[in-house]
Amino acid sequence: MNIVLFEPEIPANTGNIGRTCVATGTRLHLIEPLGFRLNEKEIKRAGMDYWKDLDVTVYDNYQDFLDKNPGAKIYMATTKALNTYTEISYEPDCFIMFGKESAGIPEEILLESKDNCMRIPMIGEIRSLNLANSAAIVLYEALRQNNFSGMNMVGHLHHHSWNESL
């Protein structure tokens, strides 16, 4: 799986998404301009000690991203979409794109891929969910659809066994 952040502005969101990517074996793609420097302590703090393990690629702009990922199947998360994220069938190597916190993905880009746009349902007139939360919601649906391939499916207690009776 691949998560794409189009011009992210808040380092803590990118750091949290980076940590989610490490935990799921997902690649992170960042499209400049970024609203921060990648060496800022806030992004490293949000990504904790996982940031060094992150598979991350930075692109000069959206066209650079497209040029370096020819034929990529890109799904775009936007509050403006007609379909929900659960109506998409995610391929294991697909790209899930999220826009910048203040404005989302530009409508000109959305119109080029209207069949691949999706939204997370919300009530009322709330503008949007937090970027890191949105990325986790959609990514885990895509992973679920692909049977959580390569992921640990069973947890283990530290001091006991699930088979013992207390």
Please, could you describe this protein's structure?
- Helix 1 (11-24) packs parallel to helix 5.
- Strand 1 (2-6), helix 1 (11-24) and strand 2 form a beta-alpha-beta unit.
- The protein has five helices and six strands, in the order βαβαβαββαβα.
- With 166 residues, the protein is α/β, with parallel strands linked by helices.
- The chain is globular.
- The N and C termini lie far apart (41 Å).
- The mean pLDDT is 93.
- It has a six-stranded parallel sheet with strand order 3-2-1-5-4-6.
- Helix content is 30%, strand content 14%.
- The longest helix has 15 residues, at 131-145.
- The chain has helices at residues 11-24, 41-47, 62-68, 107-112, 131-145; strands at 2-6, 27-31, 56-59, 74-77, 95-98, 117-118.
Question: Would you count the extended β strands for me?
Answer: 6
User: Taking Cα atoms only, what radius of gyration do you get, to the nearest Å?
Assistant: 17 Å
Strand order of the largest sheet: 3-2-1-5-4-6
Low-confidence stretches: none
